[in-house]
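User: Please fill in residues for this 118-position structure.
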């Protein structure tokens, strides 16, 4: 049942994003930023943890989860460092995911030889 909920919630998020891409003039980069900010806002209000408990990976894997991860890092850093944690927390929380994306993207480019669009 957990797999089904994760699939349905993740699929619903992806379907909503696809509708945004097709029915609006928003560029994909702006939609990605919208998803990250939405995840951070939902996390700020404390609604993201119950959402993850319900949906599992369907809620934690998409870009909403990255926004939640950033917000969680900022909250922890503010508790430890005070105001300066606002600036340091997001970097510390998002460093592993960002580094992994860069490393695996580079490795994929070595294997598959990407070409520039004409």
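Assistant: Residues filled in for all 118 positions:
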């Amino acid at each position: 049942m957990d797999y089904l909920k994760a699939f349905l919630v993740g699929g619903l998020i992806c379907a909503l994003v696809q509708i945004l891409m097709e029915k609006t003039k928003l560029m994909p980069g702006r939609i990605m930023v919208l998803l990250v900010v939405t995840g951070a806002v939902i996390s700020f209000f404390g609604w993201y943890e119950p959402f993850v408990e319900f949906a599992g990976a369907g809620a934690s894997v998409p870009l909403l989860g990255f926004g939640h991860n950033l917000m969680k890092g900022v909250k922890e850093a503010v508790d430890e460092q005070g105001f300066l944690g606002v600036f340091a927390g997001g970097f510390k929380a998002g460093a592993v995911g960002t580094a992994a994306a860069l490393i695996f993207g580079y490795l994929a480019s070595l294997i598959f030889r990407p070409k520039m669009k004409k």
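For context: The chain has a mean pLDDT of 89.
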